[in-house]
Amino acid sequence: MLQHWKFDVYYLAMRLADIKNGHDNQEQGLRKMAKEMAKNLKSYHYFSELKIENRLIKLTKPNEHSLKTTTKKGQQQLLLTMRFRMNNSTVVNAKLFHDAFLTSESARKD
Asked: How far apart are CA 89 and CA 97, in angstroms?
C-alpha cells in the first residue's frame, strides 16, 4: 500500500529551516526526516485504516519512505511517501487477497 502525505508551504519552510540548521545538505536531511516522521507516526497507526470486507488489517512499519519537495500550481510542498508491504497474503472471509491487490489504486491513500 502506498501513501502520500502533502504538507503546505508553511510546514515546508519550518522543516527546511530545521534541515539547514542540522544537516550538511538538504538531501541528507530529507532522508533522515522521512525516517523520523515514519517512526513518529507509528504510535498513531499512521492515521490510517486498511479494511477488507470490514476486517481491520494492521499496518506494519513502512518498508520504504521518502521526503521531497515538489511544486504544484507555483506553490512548494513537502511530500512524504510511505510504502507498506503486506508480509503475507491475507485471508478474509475465505477469500485470498495477495500483495498485488493491496497495492492497487483502490488501496492507495493520496
From this structure: 6
Give the sign of the dihedral formed by CA 1, CA 61, CA 80, CA 49.
positive
Surface-to-core class of residue 74, CB atoms within 10 Å of its CB (0-12 exposed, 13-18 middle, 19+ buried):
exposed
Please state whether beta strands 55-57 and 50-52 pair in parallel, antiparallel, or not at all (unpaired).
antiparallel
pLDDT in tens, 21-67: 988 889 999 999 999 999 998 888 888 877 777 878 777 888 899 99
Rounded distance between C-alpha atoms, residue 56 and residue 61, angstroms: 16
**Phi, psi (5° rounding) for residue 70?**
-135, 165
CB 90 within 8 A of CB 57: yes
How far apart are the C-alpha atoms of 110 and 107, rounded to whole Å?
A: 10
